[in-house]
Specification:
The protein contains 6 helices and 10 strands. By secondary structure, the protein is of the alpha+beta class. The protein is elongated. It binds copper (II) ion.
Length: 258
């Protein structure tokens, strides 16, 4: 039988490891800048999941190491066998019920965050996103420009306003991903997919294609500029003169020579 002392030593080591793990989870900066309200929700969710995983990981590793330490075979025990054990109902109920409750809790919390991130706000603007090998273009409808529709290779969004992106592909499957917003969606030919984000931090952030879409996949990058609503409208106006104002499809096709 393992001694009481070895059990308390293992328990203390486990508690120290859990404390260190949780401390470390706060010290490490896991993610890029948070530039949308969705990013805050998502990061909090991830951190809760990480903190929930630490005690479980430590428990499993501690039990393994403890068993290796306490129940290892000593010289002369080569032919011995352990006592035969036929089930332990209480233990089995416990190790089924606790993980089930943990999983349901985490799934429930994830669902709430996802639901909140995708909730339709009272007001939002729509921007079209067109993916093609190997470039992104963006379509601003009259409801956004206040005039002719605009097609551009630049993505500007106003800070503090919810943006609903309508995603189209002209060829193969791509994925529209803005790490700073923590959101990604597949862009699939033949259908329109969507995602929604409320940018809440000024700055420029990368847009990445996150599905291998061909030889130029790694170059299929762009930038999203989060600007103030005033700057956003000024930018739209500056583009109105320069743009042909043609249909999004035509303009995207004209730019597909690269
Ligand atoms: Cu792509």
């Amino acid at each position: 039988m393992p001694s009481r002392r070895s059990l308390s030593a293992a328990s203390v080591a486990a508690l120290v490891a859990i404390a260190l793990g949780i401390l470390l989870s706060y010290l490490i900066h896991w993610f890029p800048a948070q530039a949308s309200t969705q990013a805050h929700n998502t990061d909090t969710l991830y951190h809760v999941l990480v903190i929930a995983s630490i005690p479980i990981f430590v428990l499993v590793v501690t039990v393994i190491l403890y068993a290796v330490w306490q129940f290892r075979m000593r010289p002369g025990e080569e032919l011995k066998d352990g006592p035969p054990i036929h089930g332990n109902t209480r233990l089995e109920v416990l190790w089924t019920a606790i993980p089930a409750a943990l999983l349901l809790g985490m799934v429930g919390y994830s669902f709430v965050v996802l639901h909140e991130n995708e909730a339709k706000p009272a007001r939002e603007i729509q921007i079209g996103v067109t993916a093609q090998q190997f470039a992104w273009s963006y379509q601003y409808p009259p409801s956004v420009t206040g005039g002719a529709p605009l097609n551009s290779y630049k993505l500007y969004v106003p800070k503090g306003e919810s943006v609903y992106f309508n995603l189209h592909s002209r060829d193969v499957i791509h994925a529209f991903w803005v790490p700073a917003f923590r959101i990604q969606e597949d862009v699939v030919p033949g259908i329109t997919t969507h995602w929604r984000a409320t940018p809440d931090r000024l700055g420029s952030y990368p847009v990445v294609c996150n599905l291998l879409c061909g030889l130029g996949h790694s170059l299929m990058r762009s930038t999203v500029h989060v600007v103030t609503p005033t700057q956003f409208h000024a930018w739209l106006e500056s583009q109105a003169g320069a743009s042909s104002g043609g249909s999004a499809g035509a303009a995207a096709a004209a730019g597909s020579t690269g």
